[in-house]
Design brief:
288 residues; Aldehyde Oxidoreductase, domain 3; 2 domains; 6-stranded parallel beta sheet; 12 strands; elongated
Amino acid sequence: MLNPISDVLNADEYIKLALKEDISTEDVSTNAVIDSFRKGSVQLICKQKGVICGLSVFERTFKILDARTWVKAYVADGDEVEKGQLLAEVVGDIRVLLSGERVALNFLQRMSGIATYTREMVELLEGTGLKLLDTRKTTPNMRIFEKYAVKVGGGFNHRYNLSDGILLKDNHIGAAGGVKEAIEAAQKYASFVRKIEIEVENLEQCEEAVEAGADIIMLDNMPIDEMKKAVALIGGRAITECSGNVTRENVQAIAASGVDYVSSGALTHSAPILDLSLKNLHPVTEEE
């Protein structure tokens, strides 16, 4: 996943929606106290330890409001930051600094929180060879930003959306009439370049998936002992992935099962934000 700001048109669409949500007609508070251009500066301060992510989106939010705004960053995406650290300074029209503050921080705090949570889980898996994946359990209209944050934290992206790969889940299996039937239908429909992944819930389904020729078998919500048996049953005939309630608390135990990948929706749906703040806003002269 590329830095979302490298695809400005795509990123801008979602940033503008967020700005429109926060400023439907005008920023009444700001317009009430300042009615014309006045150059100012404000500091981005870190309020807790974590991994910073989303600086380009943070900057772009202000630039959409006024292209003359500039951000001087003292850190880069992926850097570990500490409480009290000065991360950046934003300079521009004070009205823009005030009106863009919340939206810019919302993006930055959310993305940094995901990167921080992901980094913690990746560190727990260090030395196991197990790769950590995200899921499609993302905030609506935030997927491009949240999946980028997972990568900054050291994780890997699963499919981006429904057009990106075949993953047959329990309801697909139900609709097709069974594991074998679902895989056979997918094999007939899909191009030979597409892998077919299927979700299984027990050893019986796992064996059926192997025999039907699935490329990737996802072990969903299986107890660890059963996962170990499933990995042995598959015996390298398919790539293995484990999913279902994977968190910081149990990911190390899951690693011992022998699966190739582990996917965690918690990376995007349960990561707390990283606390950041814009402080010390003040007017500056044109010479500064």
